[in-house]
Design a protein that fits this description.
Order of helices and strands: EEHEHEEEHEHEHHEHEH
Shape: globular
CATH topology: Rossmann fold
CATH architecture: 3-Layer(aba) Sandwich
Radius of gyration: 18 Å
Distance between the termini: 14 Å
Structural class: alpha/beta
Number of strands: 10
Number of helices: 8
Largest sheet: 8 strands, mixed
CATH superfamily: SGNH hydrolase
Oligomer: single chain
Length: 303
């Protein structure tokens, strides 16, 4: 299926993907902090620690408003679908996790959690005839103000900006001779900047610089970009730090050519219907929220 996304062709190196291997690989970079890492609970349902499973993925596939959208995630026998046309590469600590897209590609290891990558990858895999690679690069508790600070912002370059670039380059090199098209950069980050008053006034400019520097690093001046809103907790009072930060996110995105800002507040779910009732900074661990965020990011990028 032909994409509406304007993708710049870059040629690099990848292990042969199992499906449609003769076509250039569509590569998407998914970057950010803990909500890009993924905090959506899959099946844990302890009555005290996980609210009896309310809001986890298993529960959401039966009880949430999005249940009908989630049927493709699981086989009839109850096992999780593993796509052979969508591969993910995600370095956790010193180990690169790589394989067909399914649940569990988060910082926790195993299959206990999901992030936006799950439904994002399903949307892209359904859309493209070519194989898809998601390069996920994310760390919890990191700011754009310091940790991801891009070179163009001046001052000391953030160590996690450097690590992000290194991880993407390593994943592209691991393509091992395959042709690829760098098709999109997805940024889902912001909690630490929102909690750091001096960071909010700088955020829009830092975001512009981040995208400019990433595009320069990969010689992709028109690389499509999607920025996900820090929608945790839903609507925020006017004048609050959260409201001001979201405005900065949107303002920065509007100043970037070929970029889209994706609102996500509508995907917030109440704590009482979520597994991690005290974790508002992580969407209360609600799997439906992470599923819908990934869906929205992917569809915005395809426009």
């Amino acid at each position: 299926m032909k994409s509406a996304v304007y993708s710049l062709c870059l040629f690099g190196l990848i292990s042969v993907l199992p499906a449609r291997a003769e076509s250039p690989v569509k590569v998407f970079i998914l970057a950010g902090q803990s909500n890009m890492e993924g905090q959506g609970v899959v099946s844990m349902d302890h009555p005290d620690h996980y609210n009896g499973g309310k809001g986890n993925l298993v529960w959401s596939m039966k009880n949430s408003a999005s249940a009908g959208m989630m049927k493709h995630l699981r086989k009839a026998d109850g096992t999780w679908v593993v796509r052979d046309d969508v591969e993910i590469s995600y370095k956790v600590k010193d180990t690169v996790r790589k394989g067909g897209l399914t649940v569990g590609y988060t910082g926790y290891g195993g299959s206990s959690h999901i992030g936006p990558e799950l439904q994002f990858g399903h949307v892209m895999g359904d859309h493209y005839e070519e194989p898809v690679l998601l390069i996920k690069t994310a760390w919890g508790g990191k700011s754009l103000y310091v940790d991801f600070r891009p070179p163009s912002s001046g001052g000391e370059v953030g160590p996690y900006y450097t690590r992000m670039i290194e991880e993407v380059r390593a994943a592209l090199k691991a393509l091992d001779g395959r042709k690829y098209e760098l098709a999109g950069f997805v940024w889902m980050q912001g909690w630490n900047d929102m909690c750091t008053p001096p960071a909010i006034p700088e955020y829009a400019e830092n975001l512009v610089n981040l995208v400019e520097d990433v595009r320069m690093e990969f010689q992709a001046p028109n690389l499509p970009v999607v920025v996900g809103e820090l929608g945790n907790g839903g609507l925020a009072p006017e004048g609050s730090a959260m409201s001001e930060f979201r405005n900065a996110q949107e303002d920065g995105t509007k100043r970037i050519k070929n970029a889209v800002f994706v609102k996500t507040v509508q995907f917030a779910r109440p704590s009482e219907l979520s597994p991690n009732m005290g974790h508002g900074h992580h969407w209360f661990g609600n799997a439906e929220s992470y599923f819908l965020v990934g869906d929205a990011l992917a569809k915005a990028l395809l426009k």
